[in-house]
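Bug #2210: token dump truncated for Bifunctional NAD(P)H-hydrate repair enzyme?
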Amino acid sequence: MKQRSFYHLITPAAMAAVDRDAARSGIDSFGLMQKAGQAVCAAALRLFPEAVRMAVLCGPGNNGGDGYIAAEALRLSGVDVHVFHLGDPALLKGDASAAFLAYRGKVRPFAEYGPCSGDLVIDALFGAGLGRVLDQPVVEVIERINAASVPVIAVDLPSGLDGLTGQPRPVAMQACHTVTFMARKPGHLLMPGRALCGTVEVFDIGIPGRILDAHRGDVAINTPGIWGGSLPKLTGAAYKFTRGHLTVFSGPMSATGAARLSAMAGLKAGVGLVTLATPTEALCVNSAQTTAVMVKEVDDLPALHEYLKDKRMSAFVLGPGFGVGEKARAFTLALSDRKLVLDADGISSFHEKPEDLFEHFAKNAPTHLVMTPHEGEFTRLFPDLANEPALGKVQKALAAAKRANAIVVYKGADTVIASPDGRAFINENAPPWLATAGSGDVLAGIIGGLLAQGMPAFEAAAAGVYMHGEAALRVGEGLTAEDLAAAVRPLQMETAF
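Reproduced locally. Full output below:
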């Protein structure tokens, strides 16, 4: 299906190109700035009508221009407005200069601002295009504002926040509300940027969609509106074998719970059959703890090869509770031509020689390996990428996906799903109570269940992450992994858009 542009994020560089193309097309760029500033004014009046004073902090560029427009609109509304400028306003150029000249109130140097009780700060210092580390005097004022806990409305993005990576440079304003324009930027979703932005309002200032579409790129918000058309479709002729067969590998007797969580999650995600492939020592405990999930002895590599002769086995999950070591490596490589979710111990088993894993899956087309590392597992497999400060989470995930020829689900509060072809989704529906033992095992099972039902790997991973978040929201705070697995539901087509 055609992807809808309003789900896509605009990088700061792309947004600058959008602004240039809008001006070249004949659109009045100062008119766009006026709409932006008026939107900020409206948000301030709507959200903080009780503010005693509105302090507008204006920077040396177009973000500052938005601030001057907002300040004049607030002044005309009868608000007590105090404007503080960073740099010499006489040096402003173009639309920012025109905005400064349109403001009829007094201005004072930025260094003179001190937060007071009853203030609302409108942060129009730097937007998403900040390309450098903040100067120390600016850092000190931002730290004073954050320490005072006065409410802040950010214009485009909290000052100091990198719009591409969501990382402070080196600190960022703590906003309770952010007004951005036309589309969100990656920094609005990536942590800690998401927490620093507060609520995010996207205001349409009138740039045509065709111009946005020309620069939107392949980074998007993870939403059913993009991949919903790939969800498994049930027909009246369906039966269990047409709905796929998922195999989840169990670890030894002392560590079987993780695999059972994955197996149950896969079943709840809609797959027709699930088998727990278990070593003999764990056969009794797994048999005693499962009902709808089948159990099969698979002790070693010869037994696995025998099991794989049945081509009806649609997809596999390896890693949850499996154990780190040679057996995990051998089983993984034996599955290099099958749809595989590699999680937890499966990933960590290759930390000494990750190239062995990458080489075995290098020629697969289309990609059918999905890896689901958390921060520690990602660092073990991709230490150079993890420790590269110039890269944001999206860039790290994309580089890892290309290197491994795998879909990489880089987990966290801001899970990134990345494909070797350059596509990446950022997830935002996961509540904080998903941070609990066994949650990742459930996610691996959901993705495996969707793979077994025939979804392409990237779409299955994205849908699995989204379904994982929805299940957690369904249960609520205080959930356990058992609650989470039981709450998994297939997404219905009518609710996917």
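Output looks complete on our side. The chain has a mean pLDDT of 95. Marking as cannot-reproduce; reopen if the truncation happens again.
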